[in-house]
Write a structure and sequence with these properties.
By secondary structure, this protein is an alpha/beta fold. It has ten helices and nine strands. The protein has helices at about 30-45, 80-95, 115-120, 150-155, 160-165, 175-180, 190-205, 205-220, 225-240, 245-255; strands spanning about 10-15, 15-20, 55-60, 105, 110, 125-130, 130-135, 170, 185. A six-stranded mixed β-sheet has the order 1-2-3-4-6-9, with helices on both faces. A three-stranded mixed β-sheet has the order 5-7-8. Strand 2 (about 15-20), helix 1 (about 30-45) and strand 3 form a beta-alpha-beta unit. Helix 8 (about 205-220) runs antiparallel to helix 9 (about 225-240). It is globular and about 60 Å long. The protein starts with 7 loop residues before the first strand and ends in a 10-residue tail after the last helix. The relative contact order is 0.11.
């Protein structure tokens, strides 16, 4: 289903939706309106059976330069008002990380502050060699937010996570790839094709199974081994009872490509 937004663009091709942050004049900095629209977009994707994968990217020559500090709605006047603002921002982060559909960040240009978290919160990251990443919060006198403390410490060894967060330095896509933050590093000319190829591969898989695997992986680091085994047993039973599992076995026996419906 087509979505209409003030600060975002939504485009669907087959089972792949592309969500584009559309404030190129601000390097796609997140206004207060954009925060709300991002939450609405991820929730819409979660409930749209036609969408099996979401690509998140930015218009122009940037991915996202973080929160727009020139937007008065982003700058509260008191600590209590800041807590209220953070509850809203937290809900946006959760809507991305908990989205049952696989998400791919396509990063060209800068991904800084909350924009860096927006990329890290996606399931896969494709970046051009010209992209940069920065946890700029400390340089603005702020703590890392938008789930960054959770994301960084799961993506990196603790001391590397601390280096990025405490120094707030900008790193190149090449360095981000060396740290293991990226899934694909490509030339600028290849980013669109590489991203769409990944999205098409994900969209061709059984949607319920993909969603269950994503959820299990997100939860595993907070569980004991026994809890993870219990979760896998429960979700395996759900997957096994689906039409797509029957179709996968039939396709394998008949030596043909499966046709998954999400049921």
């Amino acid at each position: 289903m087509a979505q209409t937004y003030e600060t975002l663009l939504w485009e669907e091709r087959g089972h792949v939706a592309t969500l584009t942050l559309n404030r190129p004049e601000k390097k796609n900095a997140m206004s207060w309106v954009m925060f709300g629209e991002l939450k609405r977009a991820f929730e819409a994707a979660a409930h749209d059976d036609n969408v099996r994968c979401v690509i998140v990217t930015g218009a122009g020559n940037a991915f996202c330069s973080g929160a727009d500090l020139s937007d008065g709605a982003n700058v509260p006047s008191s600590a209590s008002q800041m807590k209220d603002r953070m509850r809203t921002i937290d809900a946006v982060a959760l809507s991305l990380i908990d989205c049952p559909k696989p998400t791919i960040a396509k990063v060209t240009g800068v991904a800084a502050g909350a924009g860096c978290q927006l990329a890290l919160g996606c399931d896969l990251i494709v970046a051009s060699k010209a992209a940069t990443f920065a946890e700029l919060f400390v340089k603005r006198g702020l703590v890392v937010d938008f789930g960054g403390s959770w994301l960084l410490t799961r993506a990196l060894p603790l001391h590397k996570a601390k280096e990025l967060a405490l120094l707030g330095e900008t790193i190149s896509a090449i360095d981000a790839d060396r740290l293991g933050l990226l899934n694909r590093l490509c030339d600028e000319a290849d980013v669109d094709q590489v991203t769409m190829d990944l999205a098409d591969r994900l969209a061709a898989l059984p949607p319920r199974t993909v969603s269950l695997i994503k959820s299990n992986l997100n939860r595993a680091s907070d569980q004991t081994l026994q809890q993870t085994l219990d979760t896998e047993a429960a979700t395996q039973a759900l997957a096994f009872s689906s039409h797509d599992t029957t179709e996968a076995v039939a396709a394998w026996l008949e030596k043909r490509e499966p046709r998954f419906t999400g049921h």
